[in-house]
Amino acid sequence: MKRNILIMIILISFLIILSGCWNRRELNELAIVMGMGIDKSEDQFVVTAQVVIPGEIAKKGGGGGKTPVVVYQEKGETIFQAIRKITTESPRKLYFAHQRILVLGEEFAKEGIGKALDFLSRDPELRTDFYIVVAKDSKAGDVLKVLTQLEDIPANQLFSSLESAEKAWAPTVTVTLDKLITDLVSDGIDPVLTGITLKGDVKTGETKQNIEVTSAPTILKYNEMALFNNDKLIGWLNDQDSRAVHYATGKVKSTLGVIPCPKTGKIGIEVMRTKADIKAKVKNGEPKGSIKVQIEGNVADVECRGLDLKKTKTIYDLEKISEKDVKESIQSAIEVTQKEFQSDVFGFGEALHRSDPAYWKKVKKEWGQKFSEMPVTVEIDVKIRQTGTIGNSPLNEIEE
């Protein structure tokens, strides 16, 4: 009996100990990081942390003199050392579990981002669902200092804007930490990241003056796509070539294409769905690639006269014009990536690895050179499904 009572006391003691939050941390002990930037200064890492001020975000009305976020910056021999050194300025320890955006400085990206990715994947506190972008022609720290108008927390606006642009415009792409690491370590595909540019004066952008006017003097804008070879930034694709790459890889969710009318004027075609197939095979001892893209869209706006959208032939002609436009843009992007960068952002190497593993094993070390010389055929199939709530344009009834 006494033995049973003793066992019960021990079990209850263990339950009391284990039920507590042994590693809990109170909110007022943490500095919640929403955005992080990494730059390089000589042989040191420069880490910038955009930290939310909960009291300012919680205020219902205006009148407060503080900005909604505070930005800390420190240098260190490693990224983790720089983060820990921020505690010499911040009264709270940085907490990264709610991070939304990681900005990499252009100069840092050119030197190689592998060391940063090691820390980001190793730290158990960091989630991997934040987006990663590259600051074009500027430092990551400067990007994170700019206050934004629509969202109180700039990192939230950068996160949401990147998602919206990917869904509605297409030259941009959301890349998480897991996706970036997968592309870096995979054979036969080179990573890409969306670029972000800072337009205006940084000093003005970090003051409340930037958000107290209808048109901000300093803005952040997603622009162009960063190409990597291994973990090093090697160049940029403009918006047109970026969108073409996403057409070829099936990443276009929706966008708007503008094509010429059969005679004069322009027509906007809203892309609703896309499907792409990339293949590579060996023929006569050399690799050959192919891209097939299927596109479904609707007529979005018509800016030309005399166009009868009720005729089947008119729709057919518009489909053929659209096919030619998309095909030329993809061919242009292929030429740029082959001749200027030797960067296989399409994943032809992966396709070749699947179709002919033995050949791939022989050429993978020199794939950049092989890719730059590889012929690629492009086939586009466009189907226009709808013309909107009206048939022919009112322009047809308006006298010139």
Characterization of this structure:
- This protein is α/β, with parallel strands linked by helices and 400 residues long.
- The chain contains 14 helices and 13 strands.
- The strands form two sheets. Strands 1, 2, 3, 4, 5, 6, 7, 8 and 9 form a nine-stranded mixed β-sheet that branches.
- Strand 1 and strand 2 (44-52) form a beta hairpin.
- Helix 10 crosses helix 11, helix 11 (312-341) packs across helix 14 and helix 12 (348-355) crosses helix 13 (357-363).
- The longest helix is centred in the C-terminal third of the chain and has 30 residues, at 312-341.
- It is globular and about 80 Å long.
**Low-confidence runs of at least 5 consecutive residues:** none
Radius of gyration: 26 Å
Order of helices and strands: HEEHEHEEHHEHHHEHEEHEEEHHHHE
Strand content: 25-35%
> What is the count of helical runs?
14
What is the number of beta strands? 13
Distance between the termini: 105 Å
What's the main sheet like?
Answer: 9 strands, mixed
Fraction of residues in H or I helices: 25-40%
Integer count of domains: 2
- Average pLDDT, all residues: 91
Structural class: alpha/beta
**Large-scale geometry:** globular
